[in-house]
Amino acid sequence: MMELRGKAVADALKEKIKKFLDKMDEKERPQLAVVRVGERSDDLAYERMVMKNCAALGLPVRVEAMNEQVTTDEILELIDALNGDDAVRGILVFRPLPVGIDEQAVIEAVSVEKDVDCMNPQNLQYVMVSDERAIPPCTPEAVMRILSYYGFSLEGKNVVIVNRSGVIGRPLSIMMLEQNATVTVCHSRTKNLARITSQADIVVVGVGRPRFFGAEYFNENSIVIDIGINFDERGACGDVDYDAVAPAVRAITPVPGGVGTVTSTVLLSHVLPEAFL
Amino acid sequence: MMELRGKAVADALKEKIKKFLDKMDEKERPQLAVVRVGERSDDLAYERMVMKNCAALGLPVRVEAMNEQVTTDEILELIDALNGDDAVRGILVFRPLPVGIDEQAVIEAVSVEKDVDCMNPQNLQYVMVSDERAIPPCTPEAVMRILSYYGFSLEGKNVVIVNRSGVIGRPLSIMMLEQNATVTVCHSRTKNLARITSQADIVVVGVGRPRFFGAEYFNENSIVIDIGINFDERGACGDVDYDAVAPAVRAITPVPGGVGTVTSTVLLSHVLPEAFL
């Protein structure tokens, strides 16, 4: 069994980003703007992580902190200024925004070209019709990068995705179809799920049920990508019963240490110009 | 074997449209505007068919015929006027437009709310993210209407769609997922196609190869929807080898007389307000 660790994938991408930025004068480097409203502890923790990752990469980051009493209009003004600022090439808004703020208006205001976290619905729509202007959502892109990094081509492969959400399963299915996979999207109403998943070459699961998928859902050649992040009495775990499944399949992402490890680096890579990819 | 004739489906929909319009004063009825540039014989034939169908339904139609020497800007001006005309509730532009016209600019100019033929990319994007403002493309909607008319629910069903195009396979897969089908999208690079299709409850094929799908692609419970329209030495035919397959499956659409028979009525139904559906 091959463990598809996210760290190696993230490290390779970081290396590439670093090399790209190293060639540029610091003043010319694309800038990430982080918009934080209030002082929620998880926002602050996320911000520290983003700052640390950006510093390690040499990616300039600017934090726009606003106090909790701010109005929707004031946030929109800030977004507008960031949209118009040529130095800023990525805008990340921490969510949820405080109660009383029109969050939808805020995320739709972020210019599609700077929407590094794929929050603007227009961006998702671009993904769904394979428009080249699309910035893909980070989790599906992380899945694609893991498969590619470990040398698993999608060409002619049968893929089953157990998730039909608009931000994960659907865009991922389109991205995989583009690479000539045959893609089946399953969900909670699917009948005989184990029969379907166990016939696939690659299975991507994201259902939010801790250790739900046992060995009967796979075969000895399965490549298993687990995008679930759950917590149970034994700690953090994915949707796959890792201990039971890992010995019985060809390859599997661990949780933690799998897909989730790659997404934050994918997000930062979106600040770079398209030519980087 | 049950033959899923399109005529019954189209007739039922026509009846519904007619009833809806009958209740309205003629001046208040929603109007369809047809935009034709030049005098191509197939445009003229299509126009006659649309006029005849509209007359039978009591749906007012206005033909805006422009001569072939018209410029893109002049067409855009007309579209703009039709977009702003509250009486006009649907705009149908005959394509292809003459060489030299920026067809993309024209179709993107049609207001999404009046885009009855789902030409504007924004409309397809809405379909792909299940936005309620979407007007679905006519062929996928015709497939959905045929299944519904003949009493085949999609709930929990395994569906295989052999077509991954942006106007047919992809939107249809999303529309079917919305109704709780488990959906597999196949294409020319799919391996073991017959093994995959023969396990499904419902198979939709659209590959443009006359009589390509023989009985080995189906099982005795298959519901087969053929959206292919081809011509070979024996005349018009679908992608399914009808004579070989029909006796061996549960239900099948004929070609001609199947999906294609429903699409033109679906298009006209899009002129009516959403509340009609």
What gyration radius of chain A follows from the Cα positions, in whole Å? 19 Å
Biggest β-sheet of chain A: count, sense, barrel? 6 strands, parallel
What's the β-strand tally of chain A? Answer: 11
Write the element-wise H/E pattern of chain A from the N-terminal end onward. Answer: EHEHEHEHHHEHEHEEEEHEH
Number of helices of chain A: 10
What is the CATH superfamily classification of the largest domain in chain A? NAD(P)-binding Rossmann-like Domain
Percentage of residues in helical conformation of chain A: 25-40%
What key attributes describe this structure?
alpha/beta; three-stranded parallel sheet; Rossmann fold; homodimer; 277 residues; 11 strands; six-stranded parallel sheet
Could you explain how this protein is built, in words?
2 copies of one chain form a homodimer. Chain A has helices spanning 6-22, 41-57, 72-84, 103-109, 121-128, 138-149, 169-178, 193-197, 242-245, 259-269, and strands at residues 2-3, 31-37, 61-66, 88-93, 158-162, 182-186, 202-205, 223-226, 230-232, 235-237, 251-252. Chain A is 38% helix and 17% strand. A 6-stranded parallel β-sheet of chain A has the order 1-11-8-7-5-6. The radius of gyration of chain A is 19 Å and the shape is globular. The interface between A and B is medium-sized, with 29 and 29 residues. Strand 6 (182-186) of chain A pairs antiparallel with strand 6 of chain B, so a sheet runs across the interface.
Please give a quick description of this structure:
Two copies of one chain form a homodimer. By secondary structure, chain A is of the alpha/beta class.
